[in-house]
Amino acid sequence: MKTECNTRQFEFQGVGRRGVVGKFDGGNITSDSGGLLLREVDERLGISKRFAECFTDYRDEKSIEHEVEALVRQRIYGIALGYEDLNDHDDLRSDPLLAVLCGKEDPTGSKRRNPRDRGKALAGKSTLNRMELTEEEADEKNRYKKIKCDGEKIDDLLVDLFLDSTEKVPHRIIVDVDATDDLIHGNQEGRFFHGYYRNYCYLPLYIFCEDHLLCARLRPSNIDASEGTVEELERIVFRIRERWPEVEIVVRGDSGFCREKIMAWCEGNGVEYILGLARNSRLEEIIHEDLVDAQIMYATRGKASRIYREFFYQTRKSWSRLRRVIGKAEYLSKGTNPRFVVTSLDEMDAQRLYEKMYCARGDMENRIKEQQLYMFADRTSTGKIRSNQIRLYFSSLAYVLVNALRRFGLKNTRLAKAQCHTIRLKLFKIGAQIRVTVRKIWVSFAEGYPYKDVFLRAFANVTKT
Question: pTM of this prediction?
Fold first, then answer.
């Protein structure tokens, strides 16, 4: 039969003698009830509250219905639950579950001042975008955009959240640095064409310690990938050593960060490093015999062969001193594949240093992927680089929140190592009916939800004292 529908009901293919009719009349039903776990984590760690303290609100107190903390929560939870655009919030503002997550005591919005807002407990896009578009020099004299963001406080907050999450002071931490492309499709401020990525893009700098995000800095792409790294490391290392003065810090990065300025700064500040080193004819000549031996081994065994050699090396012009270099003479089915790293570490043998320490940096790319793709860090479509940086901050805090749930909420579950989008799909996207009474807000989860065991364990983990 031909499907017919109108604005009130939808007639689908029948089942046996029964017709199948759909209507948007289910009442207060949400598809994101698993977000309640995020709220439990947030309340425990104070992430949204501390983030909100990084904003200055110049709005007239008498006219405010949505406090900054509620706005911050709405934006962070929206991103974490998969809603990347501010436009989405013109519909989400009617979701009573999201209102509960944001701490709204009137989750149905029945008591809003303006009659046209009743039934919509949360802010719409025009209110939310004031946090992103308020200029740096704004004050109470501005007419509309009066919620000013303090980027320096947010930068410090990211480091502090990492420090606060660690119960025992570690002997050593490894700080990973990397840059990636953030494609842009308009005439945004800072728009440049990047030859390597062959497109117009930003070139954000990310700094992680394991899965903890320490820095997300939006930059134009007409710069070297390492630009600004020393300044960010200086700030981060100082803050870490304020809390952990004895901790050993190792900076790790690919060859894009093998720069004299970075290595010299590390050497002058008691920070170790292990960095990729771009190959050249001089380096390849040093391990030439090893490459020949690796080729012979490959011909004999029929599988990839590697020989490691360490030596001291100095460039003709750019380096100020001799430094320890590890060379990997590798032969694969496609031919020779020489690789090099430079390091200040001296306690490991060459193979272990390369394979166990340097190669582990590849996991950072998974963290960047989570940030860029699943927390929508690439949604940098406003006209100004400052407002796009603020969007990156919101994405960053959403990642920090979901990662916190993964780290201790999903411990010892089958989602303990799941990526953010998998957690969202399997743990947050739970259909539920919401009923608001005088004393309770009842959330009736879908009975057919297949990950009840994970949800129960996560709830136990995040609510235990």
Answer: 0.93
